[in-house]
Predict the structure of Nitric oxide synthase-associated protein I.
Amino acid sequence: MAPKLLALSSLSSICPFPIPNSSPSSLNIYKFHTPKPTLIFCKSTEPQTISESEPEGYGAAAPTRGDIYLQRQQVVAASSSVLATTKKKKKKKDNIFKISNLAPCCYGCGAPLHTSEVDAPGYVDQETYDLKKKHHQLRKILCGRCRLLSHGHMITAVGGNGGYSGGKQFVTAEELREKLSHVRHEKALIVKLVDIVDFNGSFLARVRDLAGANPIILVITKVDLLPKDTDLNCVGDWVVEATMKKKLNVLSVHLTSSKSLVGISGVVSEIQKEKKGRDVYILGSANVGKSAFINALLNTMPYKDPVAASARKYKPIQSAVPGTTLGPIPIDAFLGGEKLYDTPGVHLHHRQAAVIHVEDLPTLAPQSRLRGQVFPSSGQNLDSQIANRMRSSGLSGLSIFWGGLVRIDVLKVLPETCLTFYGPKALQIHVVPTEEADEFYQKELGVLLTPPTGKEKADDWMGLETKRQLQIKYEDIERPTCDVAISGLGWFSVVPVNKSAGIFNPVSEVKAGELTFIVHVPKPVEIFVRSPMPVGKAGGRWYDYRELTEEELEVRPKWFF
């Protein structure tokens, strides 16, 4: 059947959308007469916008699963980029805020500068402060306290738990610890210092509370104070063994001397290798030698990092007073822009320095190489009563005073047993029968038994209130059985049979047994019993290297000197 042409007037009843102006010649509409529903086809030469939804099969293809996955990945990537940018901006603002709020500090001790209190750390006269401020040189000022310390004056500033008696105190030990609390949240490299003379007392077994999960380099200081002819190979192995027992994972162990620069170059190389863009923090207990160590670093680092050469002009002050550094001191010492931080020492209440008067502090610091004081020995001048008693029963029934700080009651030992003391030369050894020890201590404290020095300080002295009984088993008489370390002072080694003293009797030789002592110290001071440190020429002969398994070799830190 031929299509039939429709008129425009009847189009509106068929098409639901408006028709633009067109002549009949430009628009041909046909109607097919079929039994099926009528289909209308509209064709126009002008573009038309149709608001009706397209019939099924005429629209865009539905997205595939791959397209959906790609779209999601693009959204996630875009959101991550936005979050990273926002976080970076926020971190940058936080850093700017933190730096801008840091008050200028003394480069010698880290105390905030001020012009108000003359005796306080950080004091600078008003004229100097104004002049340095005008020229933007406030970070190049040394406060009045640091100038006095550099000339040998003993000026303490730390009080509270772990602080010091005597003198004026401006900050507590707890406040100094709080200044270190942020380190555990930083991405940093920790260099932990330990004094070899006070190894147990200065070790900071809970250093992870300050350092967090940051890597640690363990540095042993003052090895130049060890007795002559000491084999540092044995000492290094002994230190690593002691560190492993404390379950403190460290990168490496270094034996150093800030005075003679022994081992310092090895520490510099290790820092350069491990810092990896992080700041470096020097941590340790009070008076362990952090400032002296940093000065030694700055004297050695210019050979590998030229930036350290300019930092040597404004370096931290050194002093025998514990608590010299009162705040973190940033030092520009690396070419990459990282900071080297000298930090306040951690003040520990269990060390001898926390209980004696400030004027007696220098007596606790050895100034020269240690020499073991063997007691008894054939060359000592002893009271005839004491000498006769020692010939018959050795040290049993006697009390040995190490200055006014330590008393050792010998309850049960072999006739040939001797004690070798390693510590400050200022502390003299005195021996009396145990039944006369209390009276002797009360009478001679501040006179023969020092520190405390003088009767005035002795009247305020708390006494030796802590008592600890030690039962020491021995299996080999050819070597020391153990060391008994006094926190903040030194140690004495226990030798079951001393053949070199000239009093050895072969008849009484015993293969194994037990020795008993009672050690008296001031109340907060701690006593440590440890394996003997191999010092002196004899230490190299009797020290045994332990055989290690392959697993131990993998986790055991290397040591250097």
